[in-house]
Design a protein that fits this description.
- The protein folds into two domains: 1-72; 77-152, no CATH class.
- The protein is built from five helices and no strands.
- The protein has helices at 3-27, 41-64, 75-98, 100-114, 120-141.
- Helix 3 runs antiparallel to helix 4 (100-114).
- The radius of gyration is 18 Å and the shape is globular.
- 15% of the residues are buried.
Length: 152
């Protein structure tokens, strides 16, 4: 593997670690429950996993050696990354106000569209089906409270 690639992988690992920390912090603001798993516990679990994988990736590439020669930053791809991170951040922040069921189909639709899938009927069906499936699994099967609409 080229040293430039290792540096890029190292930076991506650091970014994943930072996202994991931010996501964990954001999940602390979610509703708490007295008994069982609350709506913020699953995002915390994912954040810990994201941080751990980022740490593993950064450490692995740091041990192999890094080089800062001829680093080329693709501004278009960097902008796309920043846009998706901002939208994901807004999704997590708005979930307490707009609720899981209302917000998630739009987020899934945006993610599919943003990454280049253009069959809109399939995206709409997949967005609604994904939201319904996650709702059924967590709300009905695991009895986990998901954020609900409470804007008013």
């Amino acid at each position: 593997m080229k040293k430039e690639t290792r540096l890029a992988d190292f930076i991506v690992g650091i970014v994943f670690m930072l996202l994991g920390v931010v996501w964990f912090y954001q999940a602390n603001d979610m509703m708490k429950v007295d008994l069982g798993i609350g709506p913020g516990d699953y995002p915390k679990f994912i954040a810990i996993g994201l941080f751990s994988l980022g740490l593993l990736q950064a450490a692995k590439n740091a041990v192999k050696g890094l080089s800062i020669n001829e680093i080329k930053i693709n501004r278009k791809q960097l902008l796309r990354l920043v846009i998706f991170v901002v939208v994901s951040f807004l999704y997590v922040r708005l979930m307490d106000y707009l609720g899981f069921i209302l917000l998630t189909p739009f987020y899934v639709f945006f993610a599919c569209w943003f990454f280049g899938y253009r069959k809109y009927i399939i995206i709409v069906i997949a967005s609604i089906a994904t939201t319904a499936l996650i709702h059924l699994v967590f709300r009905v099967l695991f009895l986990v409270m998901l954020p609900e609409f409470r804007l008013f």
